[in-house]
Amino acid sequence: MKNKKVTPTTVERGMRAEDFIVSKTDPKGRITYGNRIFIEFSGYDEKELLGAQHNIIRHPDMPRGVFQFLWNTIQDRRECFAYVKNMSKDGSFYWVFAHVTPSLDAHGKIIGYLSVRRKPKPQALAVVVDLYQEMLAAERRVPAHDACQTSMNVLLKVLAERDISYEEFIVTI
Fold it and tell me: Which domain holds residue 66?
């Protein structure tokens, strides 16, 4: 199930400081677990979430390049931090600071992914929103098959201008 029928709204749902959204997926990104806070913010019930692709909550304001970077990182068996705008079943949205890690078996094979999300820092969102808008604009100027790389190039340019790694950028904004 994907949120094709969901129309984004301008209603924002703010996370509480004590909230931790937790979800697990299989190696293909299908949800295998979601805690009660995930269910609350997504607006879907557990039955709707289990087995669905995690992108069921993807907001169209999110640049494809961000998800490409995230997937490349976790498939390389490394953790990734990212600011993500998610969309609830009712079209409202909520921002999260996500920490995504691969789950490995005893032989180092990826058997799934774990994501823990918490309330983002408002000052970081001020930077991220502008960056994501620039990345989306770049994606829209090129054919779909070039969108991810074009978007990533915007991010890489920002990192080069600041002379920092992605990891340094994401934790210092």
Answer: 21-172
